[in-house]
Protein: DUF1697 domain-containing protein
Organism: Antrihabitans stalagmiti
Amino acid sequence: MTRYVALLRGVNVGGIRMKMADVRKLFEDIGFTAVKTILASGNVVFETDRSDRSALKADIEGALTERFGYEAWIVLHDTDTVRSIVESYPFDPERDGWHPYVVFTSDADIGTELRDLADTLDPEVERVAAGDGVVYWEVERGQTLLSAFGKASGKKGYKSTTTTRNLRTLQKIIA
């Protein structure tokens, strides 16, 4: 059995509302075990003996779309990968007055575009660093949606391939 983390994009923001108990039930109905949701922002941990990650992702997205009536996109990793991503966070995650984020992307080109913004950012407001399939982002509290990177990473064209999580949320997921 492999333990996976499904990060649902855009859940309980922008009009897509769902109860995590309903999401948990859906994952159980698909046949997954040890299903657990963390917070109300679309974080699901589950176990399965299936190993084809692409097929798992497609099945989950299809089931979410059918059950909840929205075009679902997820990022899917096993828990060891998420743990490695968390442990590799390159900035001080406890920096007072700052938020530590991880931007997950399933499209290498978009990840490169986002990482290439590093030299254009004001380090007094935010910093980014490349990770394995992610972009690490540190931003001053209160600037998340106003910062250059925050605006760039929220582009509509990135919607189906990226999702952002606070490092503290990821720590709860792997705990």
Summary: The two ends are 18 Å apart (CA to CA). The chain has two domains: 2-81, 88-174.
